[in-house]
Design goal:
Blueprint: E1 8-12, H1 19-30, E2 33-36, H2 37-50, H3 58-66, E3 70-75, E4 78-83, H4 95-104, H5 108-122, E5 127-131, H6 134-138, E6 144-149, H7 152-162, H8 168-177, E7 190-193, H9 199-212
Parallel strand pairs: 1-5, 1-6, 2-5, 6-7
Antiparallel strand pairs: 3-4
The chain binds cytidine-5'-diphosphate (CDP).
Amino acid sequence: MQEQFYRVIAIDGPAASGKSSVARELSRQLGFVYVNSGAIYRAITWYILQKRIDPEDGECITEVLKSAPITGALQDNELRVVIDGVDPADHLRDDCVNEKVAGVSQFPEVRQVVAEKLHKDAYSHNLIVEGRDIGSVVFPDTPYKFYVDASPQVRLQRRAAQGWRDEIAQRDRADSSRPVSPLVIAKDACVIDTSLLTIDEVVSQIIARLKQLGLPIAS
Ligand code: CDP
């Protein structure tokens, strides 16, 4: 990792594995800024759909992104995504976004834009970043890597409890099989199966591991 980066805790895993709840609680306890990289991919997807750009036209998406800056607004220790001056938070879970986001995320140029944004964030804050390729590709040199998983049944139940319609199995397949930055377990990641654990139990396991790795944490 380049010297200038602040500390980064990477939390990767498939859809509805519990990443967001765990990352938010960790952010509260450690004071690190929380970033959901999936929200950035969702914001890009929402933006291009709204501009009536074909979500399968990588070249056109790349061109449009050149004039649509992606920034962040810090709110309650969370960096919320802003695209072309608009906060799309209310639309990130729209059905059309759920359906198209994995396709849009497969384009290397789109991934490059998101990685650059995350690197920029890491020059100014200690971060907890959740996603699919954070430990494997975006911040490969951070020692603080976690892969959070749960059984497919539990993940489906969690998503249903959130009241969201989301073909998570389909998205997981697309995310795991794409050629660029697929969802993989980084070789030095600590893997946690959250199927039978509460959020607090997962957070405790992560904090114990971070202490083992030498991250200074007041207990
Ligand atoms: O919340 P959920 O786990 O359903 O997904 P998300 O984190 O909001 O991510 C939405 C989609 O963005 C994923 O299915 C991936 O296609 C893409 N994504 C990615 O490719 N790389 C990341 N680091 C994060 C998300």
